[in-house]
Amino acid sequence: MKNFTLLFFALISCFGLNASSVVSEPTDKTVAGTKVTGEKELVLDNAAVTDAMREFKSLRRTDRKARIAQAKAVLKEFKAQKKAAREAAAPEPSTNTVLLVILAILLPPLAVALHEGGINGKFWLSLLLTLLFWIPGVIYALIVVLS
Fold first, then answer.
1. pLDDT above 90 covers what percent of the chain?
2. Using alpha carbons only, how large is the chain's radius of gyration in Å?
3. 58 and 39 both lie in a single domain
4. pTM flag (> 0.70)
5. Containing domain of residue 135, as a range?
6. Angle at the Cα of 124 (from 117 to 142), degrees rounded to 5?
């Protein structure tokens, strides 16, 4: 869905739709019982989209391919910028995380309890997995600690 949205915005920019026809408005939603504030929802002017699609369909085949190639190039550039920003913002693992990973390998339930700040459902699941078979407990603890 995310890739489709990015491709959609790239195509819109290539087809010359202006800002008044494509608006991204903040909304308040409830997702899985959690209220999400500030998510952006796409609102389109149907006439502008219809005109852009009509214009696209009226193009020759080579022009269509050129527009699609241009949209893909814009999308590729956007993804590269987003990846670079994500890598620049990624913090290095702290000493605490390294210690929790080591503890997750040795004593998975303890690592989960320390990471979660107390005994909860994740702790009990980690304990059960560790008592049944040690490896699933380690894998689950690493997932919890590293997420």
1. 31
2. 24
3. yes
4. no
5. 95-146
6. 65
**Amino acid sitting at position 55:** E
pLDDT tens readout for residues 74-127: 889 988 988 888 778 766 667 788 899 999 999 999 999 999 888 999 999 999
Say how many residues make up the chain: 147
Q: Could you give the number of structural domains in the chain? A: 2
Which of these, 29, 43, 142, 35, lies nearest to 93 by C-alpha position?
Answer: 142
In this structure, are 7 and 51 located in the same domain?
yes
79 and 22 in a common domain:
yes
- 141 φ, ψ (degrees, to nearest 5): -60, -40
CA–CA dist 18, 21 (Å, integer): 6
| pLDDT tops 90 at residue 57 | no
pLDDT, position 92: 65
Cβ contacts of 10 within 8 Å, gap of 6 or more: 71, 72, 74, 75, 78
The answer on 37 and 64 residing in a single domain is yes
pLDDT in tens, 99-109: 999 999 999 99
